[in-house]
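Quick illustration for those who missed Monday's session on complexes.
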Amino acid sequence: MKAEPLVRIKNLSIKYHTLEGEISALQDISLDVKEGEFISIVGPSGCGKSTLLNALAGLLEPSAGEIMINNQRVKGPTPLVGYMPQSDQLFQWRTIWKNVLLGLEVQNKVTPETKAYAAGLLEKYGLKEFMHARPNQLSGGMRQRVALIRTLAINPEILLLDEAFSALDYQTRLLVADEVKQIIDEEHKTAILVTHDIAEAISMADRVVVLTRRPGRIKSIHTIELTCSVKTPIKCREAPEFRQYFNLIWKELDINVA
Ligand code: ADP
Ligand code: MG
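Prediction with adenosine-5'-diphosphate bound:
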């Protein structure tokens, strides 16, 4: 790991300008993320979680403060960052292989090398035999894995996951979260996951960042240390410390207070 953080968010504030006036979505967010870290961000609905990921992806300009990636100020979309949205957003009229190549096509980076890398990912993660299938022939979990591989195919250093599992049913969500975590670890990526699911956040992360209601500010940051022999999200849920983190973060989110 490098001494310098891979991502440095410094006093970031974001406001939306609407016809009704200004909406302050995020206020004075500062956070450093190290290379290889897995960060989960939790917060009430509408507190600015997606706004934060959009800013990290270079899709929204800060109203104040700045975001640095690899010591460079983020000024627009960068290939260093890959975005995995809530729904898999695979195109039905394209095969799995053509879907996986989409990100590379958009970035004009389809070369024999990048194609070989993408094909290797499909093989490594058990999807090679479905290369010529259409998305509707795959289960929801498999489609989500394809969406991840499409994001990985552009070889980003940082993966942003916005409620990436919330469209899946509970059982599938657990399994897909396990797979995704394993793939992210194996490919040595840095990840920032936004979720409203406290258990999911704790089970996957090195640190959990809790945001306040809008305008989202950092309420607390928890370093997660769980005693589990096998470090997979499903197994980590059984760790003795899990409940303590859960209760603590639950209270901080203040979900019952209107
Ligand atoms: P979260 O992902 O935590 O649910 P968002 O980041 O989507 O929250 O939104 C934060 C706040 O900013 C919300 O109140 C939302 O209504 C508002 N907002 C989001 N996008 C826009 C936009 N394009 N224009 C105006 N307001 C927006
Ligand atoms: Mg959101």
